[in-house]
Each structure stands twice: as C-alpha cells, then as structure tokens.
Specification:
The protein is α+β, with helices and mostly antiparallel strands and 247 residues long. The chain contains seven helices and ten strands. It has two domains: 64 residues, Winged helix-like DNA-binding domain superfamily/Winged helix DNA-binding domain (Arc Repressor Mutant, subunit A); 159 residues, 3-Layer(aba) Sandwich (Chorismate lyase). 26% of the residues lie in helices and 34% in strands. Helix 1 crosses helix 3 and helix 2 packs across helix 3. One of its GO terms (biological process) is negative regulation of DNA-templated transcription.
Length: 247
C-alpha cells in the first residue's frame, strides 16, 4: 500500500497523486491512449477527496500528459516531440532523428509583391517578388504543423520547379543555389488557431498553438528564408538552453 504524505508535508496530496500517475505512465502501466482512473476510483484507492483527485488529473492535463474526452474520462496523451532550438535543422530531419517518418503536403505556392513587413525582414524593396509556400508538416500520419515559408524570388529563380513535398527546402537552398546557411533568429508566440488553421491541423478552433517565427541567414549574414510555423502544442514542445555569461 502506498502511503501518502500528510498535509503538513510538501508536496500537496494532489501533486503526490499526479506524480504517482506520472510514474505509472513512464513505466508503461498506462500507455498512450489508455484511460486513467476516474476521480471516484482515485478517491477510493487513495482515500482522498474527489476534489483532490480532480486536481491531480487536471494538473496532468494542463501539463500535456493527459487529455479529457467529454463524458468519457481522462486519457494518457502521446509523448510530445521535443524540437530543440539549438541547431539549424529542418523539420523533416528533426522528425527522422526522433524515429518519426515525416511527410509534407504543399497546400499552396505563389509569388507576390513584398509589403513593408516582408521587405524589412529581407532588406529588399517594397514590391519585389517573394515566394510564399504553404506546407502541412506531418509525422507518422499526424498533422504537426502548418508552415508558411517566404523567400526572395531574385535569389531562388525556378524554386517552384522543385518537389517541395519530397525535398528539403534547406537542402535546396544550400546545394542547388549555393547559399551556406549559418544561423537563424527565432521568436516563439502563443496564439489560438482560427477556423482554417484548426481544420488543417485537425484540432478544435481556438485551441492554443505555438507559432515559431524563424529568419534564416547565410554565412554572410544575409536573410534568405523566413518561416512561420504554426505548431500543435499537444504534439510538440520547444527546447533550448541558457548558459551563464558569468566567469
């Protein structure tokens, strides 16, 4: 029998229950997609209140370890894909490194005239031609991200002749056009999916999504590609490291 700490001790009881459930998830007792014990079952098993049991399950849901089905219960979520921001790596390569089979679908490809915002990003004149490529990024038959990529036409003539569903955009930039990529500047934002984004990503409208804005530069510090990646927060998380500059 598992003995829980008293209320005078830390952590609180609901957090202890949450950790017990996490241990069972990690050791495979509860597999992804399987149902977790209900509030009533937890309450009876650990001699706790229904409110404490509810708080434990809610904490798992809030951390992305579980999800709820209305009227059915709480279920174990699939492990999130950790996308590190430490290396300049394409989305498909990142998935392959994690044992996930990537696939891409081009939803749109067009040429338009740069507005003020785009022109400032690329240091080009307003009105210059820019590609806009819209792709759905998938892994193991799941929709992970909706991406909008922008590139100056004058740097990449004939880009749309390449198969962007099967080929890596970074590979094309480096090997076909000769631009050696050096680094990227990135910004992360939290937003809610609109109806179109929700439909493409197969989530409910207003579901929180992570937006990764990235501008990629060559070894000569020239911006050549910008991407807005609208990523499902229930499937992916971003990871980075911070180092002290103190000696």
């Amino acid at each position: 029998m598992i003995k829980l700490r008293s209320k005078e001790q830390l952590p609180p009881i609901y957090d202890q229950i949450k950790r017990l459930l996490e241990e069972k998830i990690e050791n495979g007792e509860y597999l992804p997609g399987s149902k977790l014990p209900s509030e009533r079952e937890l309450s009876e098993q650990y001699k706790i209140s229904r409110m404490t049991a509810r708080n434990a399950l809610t904490s798992l849901v809030n951390e992305g370890r579980a999800y709820r089905k209305q009227g059915k219960g709480t279920y174990v979520a699939k492990p999130k894909i950790k996308r590190d921001l430490l290396h300049l790596t394409g989305f498909s390569k990142m998935l392959k490194e994690r044992g996930i089979e990537p696939s891409n679908y081009t939803l749109g490809a067009e040429i338009f005239e740069a507005d003020k915002i785009i022109s400032e990003k690329f240091n080009i004149s307003i009105g210059e031609e820019v590609y806009k490529i819209t792709r759905l990024r998938r892994g193991n038959q799941q929709n992970f991200a909706l991406e909008y990529s922008y590139l100056p036409v004058k740097l990449f003539p004939g880009l749309l002749d390449y198969d962007l569903e099967k080929d890596s955009l970074y590979r094309i930039i480096e090997e076909e056009y000769g631009f050696k990529l050096k680094f990227a500047k990135q910004w992360i934002k939290l937003a809610k999916a609109n109806e179109y984004e929700a439909k493409v990503l197969e989530i409910n409208p207003d579901t929180p999504i992570l937006i990764l804005e990235s501008i990629t530069y060559t070894k000569h510090d020239m911006p050549v590609e910008m991407t807005y990646s609208l990523t499902r927060g229930d499937l992916c998380e971003f990871y980075t490291e911070l180092w002290s500059d103190l000696s």
